[in-house]
Design brief:
Blueprint (H helix, E strand, L loop, with lengths): L1 H12 L9 E3 L1 E6 L10 E2 L2 E11 L7 E6 L6 E6 L3 E9 L5 E11 L11 H4 L1 E7 L2 E6 L4 E6 L9 E3 L14 E6 L5 E9 L5 E5 L5 E5 L6 E7 L5 E8 L5 E8 L9 E2 L3 E6 L7 E8 L5 E7 L9 E8 L9
């Protein structure tokens, strides 16, 4: 009897089992040969189109991909989050010329709350930004505005810890909050709001950490910031989207000098590429940068299909052309 009581007591003192439900997902992909619809054009502003694909998943829960980062060099294994509260990981498949053609080894799992349970409401699970920060994975959330850190070794089963960020919560709009979180080559972590603005009409942003604080990004309506990633040299690329009604969708990339990002600064930079529905775009929400085996800087951009029949999950890659910074459709 004593042994039974001891076993019951020990069991009651153990933490609850994690609710991680990790499931494999089959991905089907369709190649995108040209970025401009009906054209063989390959140069777009400061970028050359490498390739891409649209994709569908066997599990309907895989929708709304909003943040995307590679976990290793060379553009292979990736980690992503969805705005419905799911982790998504896998590997990019490439053809003999290195062009992306699909995904393999894909898995999904719910993002866990501090009690080890899956979130029950989208208001708590609305993950938008993702960044790798050494031993941590940083995830930014909208609606219930916050940044959380997860163990990078096993993020799909990790519990979150809160990360302080300097933007006042009352300044963050319900569905236009912490859309971007990114880590620079020098280790500085930043966040940028999608459409939460200060009194001068500029986007709230912040450097994270003990020496951090607020800065702002020049807002240029009708564009909304949806993600950001740092180039190897330290400049920030800001992915932006515009939506002005049916058929009037656009995406663009702005390049912001890394040395300009500091507490109290207002930052801006040139547009290096802009596209509309004359190109293979959708609701473009995720951005990452990697250097391939040839030493080229490659941009990876993914879309959020909003779980809509009328939208697509896209994965696109572009090669950065250093001496081209003028906007071009």
């Amino acid at each position: 009897m004593r042994r039974l009581l001891a076993l019951v007591l020990a069991t009651s003192l153990c933490p609850p089992a994690l609710a991680a439900d990790i499931r494999p997902v089959e991905i089907t992909a369709r190649a995108i040969e040209a970025f401009a619809v009906g054209s063989s054009q390959s140069r777009f502003g400061g970028l050359d189109f490498v390739g891409g694909f649209s994709f569908r998943a066997s599990d309907r829960r895989l929708a709304g991909v909003s943040g995307f980062r590679f976990r290793e060099g060379g553009g292979s294994r990736f980690l992503a989050v969805t705005d419905t509260g799911w982790w998504f990981e896998g590997r990019i498949l490439r053809d003999g010329e290195g062009r992306p053609v699909g995904m393999e080894e894909a898995r999904i799992a719910p993002i866990l709350d501090p009690q080890g349970q899956a979130y029950r409401s989208k208001g708590r699970a609305d993950a938008e930004g993702l960044a790798l920060d050494g031993s941590r994975v940083l995830v930014s959330f909208e609606q219930n505005h916050r940044i959380e850190a997860f163990d990078a070794a096993e993020p799909l089963t990790a519990l979150p810890t809160p990360v302080a960020q300097p933007i006042p919560r009352h300044e963050l709009r319900s569905n236009a909050g912490l859309e971007t979180v990114a880590v620079a080559p020098d280790g500085r972590a930043i966040t940028v709001a999608e459409q939460s603005i200060d009194k001068e009409g500029n986007l709230f942003a912040a450097l994270l950490g003990p020496a951090g604080g607020l800065f702002t990004v020049k807002r240029q309506p009708p564009w909304h910031a949806t993600d950001g990633a740092f180039l190897p040299g330290g400049d920030l690329l800001l992915l932006e989207r515009r939506y002005e009604g049916f058929g009037r969708l656009g995406m663009r990339l702005r390049r912001i000098a890394g040395e300009a990002i500091r507490v109290g600064a207002l930052v801006d930079g040139p547009v290096i590429m802009e596209a509309d529905l004359g190109h293979e775009i959708d609701n473009m929400e995720g951005l990452d940068v990697f250097v391939n085996e040839a030493g080229e800087t490659i941009l990876s951009i993914v879309s959020d299909d909003n779980a809509s029949f009328f939208q697509r999950n896209l994965y696109l890659e572009f090669r950065l052309v250093e001496d081209e910074v003028e906007v071009s459709g």
